[in-house]
Structure of Tc1-like transposase DDE domain-containing protein:
Amino acid sequence: MGSRRIATCVGITHPTVLRIIREEGLRPYKVQVVQELQPGDLRARKQFCQWMLGKLRRNPDFLENVLFTDKSSFSSTSILNRQNVRIWAERNPHAMVQRVHQGRFAINVWAGIVGNNYVGPVYLPNRLNSARYLAFLQRDLLIPRHQRNNIYFMHDGAPPHFGREVRAYLDRFFGTRWIGRRPAPHLWPPRSPDLNPLDFFFLGSA
């Protein structure tokens, strides 16, 4: 809440609010947006982290073999927060961003990170279903043959990832080395963008 709004709500003058804030040594901080968790999420997150730590104890380089993946949707109508945008220049460029688009578009972008390398990006259909996701896995998910016996494939619990044909393909291709929604061999905890480098490093938690 801004200082002027505080003054209006409390019924005192704005200079008085500013004086009190200075005297109390208060500073303004931005709100941090975090993922909402549900009651069973903490247990699932703890179990996944314990499994991962066990793998790391046996093999300190285990994370080098995990292919973390995620997809994000981008559109011409995305919300722009001008407080997070800065343009550095010697003179004011009077930069503008168009907000109303007559020709709207949206696109799904998939990407992966394994070790220090990224895989993709790959553009997926806007209306993604299990059949289209399976076609993507078969056609566009290119993993060198010499790495196939070591790679752990991770994806979240999105509905297209859960189709019977998708799970059967992952079982054939990766065996027990894939992470996802139940009944995956290893369960990915839902609502855990902080555990996926795609969310906090590459795509952002969209």
